[in-house]
Amino acid sequence: MLFGLLPGTLDILVLKALETRANHGYGVARWVRETTDGDIAIEEGALYTALHRLARAGLLRAEWRRSDTGRRARFYALTSKGRRVLGEQSDTWRRSAAALFKVIGTAPGRRRP
Q1: Which structural domain range is residue 31 located in?
Q2: How far apart, in Å, do the first and last CA atoms of the chain sit?
Q3: Residue 69 lies in a domain
Q4: pLDDT tens digits for 15-35?
Q5: 3-state secondary structure string, 5-74?
Q6: Is 72 part of a structural domain of the chain?
Q7: Which of 22, 29, 46, 109 could form an S-S bond across to 75 if both were Cys, CB 3.0 to 4.6 Å?
Q8: 109 SS3 class
Q9: CB–CB of 13/40 below 8 Å?
């Protein structure tokens, strides 16, 4: 089952996918799909729009390289600013998810102790 992305999640998915190594757009999309066992698939148009926006914001740097298949591809990597923003957004998402799970785990009409 594919889930739609919640607003604001695409940026953190892209930043996280690039946390450990530079990659091209297809590699970012594949990493997200594989990491989520196919539950999240990023549409190509949305992905490339996000990559360009994040690069303009100084969170990513881009350079042309040869991919594993020998094709020329634009590879993206986190900048130091991108690493900082990833850390901040990760903390925010962890707190948001924990709060949401508290709500989901509470019986209707009951307050948590």
Answers
A1: 9-104
A2: 34
A3: yes
A4: 999 999 999 999 999 999 999
A5: CCCCHHHHHHHHHCCCCCEEHHHHHHHHHHHCCCCCCCCHHHHHHHHHHHHHCCCEEEEEEECCCCCEEE
A6: yes
A7: 22
A8: coil
A9: yes
> Tell me, what DSSP letter sits at residue 107?
P
Q: Which two tokens stand for residue 102?
A: 């508290």
| Number of domains within the chain | 1
Q: Does 109 reside within a domain?
A: no
pLDDT of residue 1: 47
Q: What is the pTM of this model?
A: 0.85
Looking at residue 22, which CATH number applies to its domain? Answer: 1.10.10.10
Q: Which residue type sits at 89? A: Q
- The Cα–Cα gap between 13 and 90 comes to 10
Assess if residue 64 is contained within a domain: yes
